[in-house]
Amino acid sequence: MKDRMKSLIYLCAGLAVAAVLSMPAGAQKQGPTIKKCQDATGKWHYGDNAAAACAQSKITVINQRGVVKREIGPPPTADEIEQRSQKEAERAQAKEQARRDELLLGTYAHEADITYIRDRKVSQVEAIIKASADTLTPLRATLARLEAQAAAEEKSSKTVSEQTAKAIEQTRAQIGKHEAMIVQRRQEQAAIKAQAERDLRRYREIKSQAIAAPAGPTPPSAR
User: Fold this and answer.
1) What's the structural domain count of the chain?
2) In 3D, which of 81, 2, 78, 66 has the Cα closest to residue 35?
3) What pLDDT does residue 137 have?
4) Within this chain, do residues 153 and 191 fall inside the same structural domain, yes or no?
5) Within a domain: residue 141?
6) Is 32 helix (H, G, I), strand (E, B) or coil?
7) Domain limits at 67?
8) Which residue positions in the chain have pLDDT lower than 70?
9) Spatial distance between the Cα atoms of 125 and 138, rounded to a whole number of angstroms
10) Coil, strand, or helix at residue 36?
11) Interstrand relation of 44-46 and 68-72 (parallel, antiparallel or unpaired)
12) Rounded CA separation 141/137 (Å)
């Protein structure tokens, strides 16, 4: 009987040692911890369910002696999340603006370069517009001739030939294509001018800020 009791004691001791050894190193030294928090009504909660009871409150983790081991801050409120998102957006915007400013200063050595590039681009687009306009003149003359021919055919035979009708359709399509291209190119010119105006305004702002920036301390040798 005594041998059996000894075996049980050794077995329990062995299980206890194994349980301790299986615990994390920090837990072996600190022992079990307890969570506590205070909910919105002011009521205190303790135990592992404290996090669920105080979903919007700060959680304090203490050991069995009541010593605070760590604190878990409350989740951010909707206003805090919005403010954080706004600040992140502002930082991203400032970073993008800095990148654009660097590109602007790297592209143009003087503000006159901006207007020069603008005028050159506008002139290039204008050449394309002129080519389409020059093409439109004979196309419209051709359409007028074909429409007159169709009217004559209809007057004489009460119908317009398939060849004439098809030629009219094709000519009108070509005229529409060139007219649409001219409208598109005019919009492109307006965009070029607007972008150049923004670049010029920002270029002047950057240069003004650089001039207005206070100079650094005067070197001792220059005093």
Assistant:
1) 3
2) 66
3) 95
4) yes
5) yes
6) coil
7) 28-75
8) 1-31, 48-53, 213-223
9) 21
10) strand
11) unpaired
12) 6
Amino acid at residue number 113: D
Q: Is the pTM of this model over 0.70?
A: no
Residue 10 in domain: no
Same domain, residue pair 147 and 195: yes
Query: Are 129 and 50 part of one and the same domain?
Result: no
3-class SS shares of the chain: helix, strand, coil, % to 5:
75, 10, 20
Taking the CA atoms of 57, 61, 64 and 67 in sequence, report the sign of the dihedral they define. negative
Q: Is residue 17 assigned to a domain?
A: no
3-class secondary-structure state, position 169: helix
Instruction: Give the pLDDT of residue 32.
Output: 72
Q: Which amino acid is at 207?
A: K
Do 127 and 207 sit in the same domain of this protein? yes
Residue 14 belongs to a domain:
no
Residues paired with 61 in a beta bridge:
35, 70
For residues 181 and 132, give the distance between their C-alpha atoms in angstroms, rounded to a whole number. Answer: 8
pLDDT for 14: 44
Please state, in angstroms and rounded to a whole number, the distance separating the CA atoms of residues 49 and 137: 84
119 and 198 in a common domain = yes
- Among candidates 181, 75, 163, which has minimal Cα distance to 125? 181
